């Protein structure tokens, strides 16, 4: 029909799909608890988020954000240093907000998942054992107590939108929870270590770089199986396996 917007499949796999129709994103999720968290987290977050247009389970309709994503994993970021610093400042504002009233991941769960995914990577021959072992050692830096803050939980650069070096919004809040502040900073800079200094400047306080490096290793190790099972390739240039190899 003339004048109708085309449907763009943003992401799709067995559990979730996101479609774009004009200026509207339609998120379809078989697990409504994730959508519940997303809607509640966006309402609580003190930083820009997409407008909820309507919700009719299993579909959540969100308005598109202005601007462009900060970047993509495996590709050079088109954003300026000022935009990266603005992202750091937005993360700090989130971390300074009151905690969301639902639980986050326990330290024991984080350690157990690390052990299990390292064993899976080695047993399936996806990475040399020495790469897994070395990154397992680096990831041990995250296994310590922390003061929980309000974290996004999946702060990939593709989830942060900027325009004229200002943050216009952050999307995909289904992993939001109380957690380790440095996890958000690590996920934001994963594969883009050259912008870590910009993010830290915007964040405005001292951070433990060894822990951020530990979270880079942890995230890359534990994400591989889920990525592969959902049709993504962590071995692409600049992606998770390259992050792990860079630690050698």
TrEMBL record:
<dbReference type="InterPro" id="IPR011009">
    <property type="entry name" value="Kinase-like_dom_sf"/>
</dbReference>
<dbReference type="InterPro" id="IPR002575">
    <property type="entry name" value="Aminoglycoside_PTrfase"/>
</dbReference>
<dbReference type="Pfam" id="PF01636">
    <property type="entry name" value="APH"/>
</dbReference>
<protein>
    <submittedName>
        <fullName>Aminoglycoside phosphotransferase</fullName>
    </submittedName>
</protein>
<dbReference type="InterPro" id="IPR051678">
    <property type="entry name" value="AGP_Transferase"/>
</dbReference>
<feature type="domain" description="Aminoglycoside phosphotransferase">
    <location>
        <begin position="42"/>
        <end position="203"/>
    </location>
</feature>
């Amino acid at each position: 029909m003339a004048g109708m917007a085309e449907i763009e499949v943003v992401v799709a796999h067995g559990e979730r799909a996101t479609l774009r129709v004009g200026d509207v994103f339609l998120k379809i999720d078989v697990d409504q608890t994730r959508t519940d968290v997303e809607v509640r987290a966006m309402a609580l977050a003190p930083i820009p988020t997409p407008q909820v247009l309507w919700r009719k389970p299993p579909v959540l309709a969100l308005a598109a954000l202005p601007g462009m994503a900060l970047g993509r994993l495996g590709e050079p970021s088109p954003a300026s240093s000022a935009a990266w610093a603005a992202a750091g400042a937005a993360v700090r504002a989130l971390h300074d907000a009151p905690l969301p009233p639902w639980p986050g991941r326990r330290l024991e769960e984080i350690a157990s998942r690390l052990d299990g995914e390292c064993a899976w990577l080695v047993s399936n021959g996806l990475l040399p054992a020495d790469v897994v072992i070395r990154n397992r050692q680096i990831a041990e830096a995250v296994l310590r107590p922390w003061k929980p803050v309000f974290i996004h939980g999946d702060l990939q650069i593709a989830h942060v939108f900027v325009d004229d070096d200002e943050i216009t919004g952050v999307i995909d809040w289904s992993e939001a929870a109380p957690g380790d502040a440095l996890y958000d900073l690590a996920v934001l800079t994963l594969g883009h270590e050259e912008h870590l200094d910009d993010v830290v400047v915007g964040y405005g306080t001292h951070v433990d770089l060894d822990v951020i490096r530990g979270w880079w290793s942890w995230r890359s190790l534990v994400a591989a199986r889920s990525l592969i099972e959902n049709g993504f390739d962590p071995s692409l240039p600049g992606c998770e396996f390259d992050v792990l190899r860079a630690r050698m």
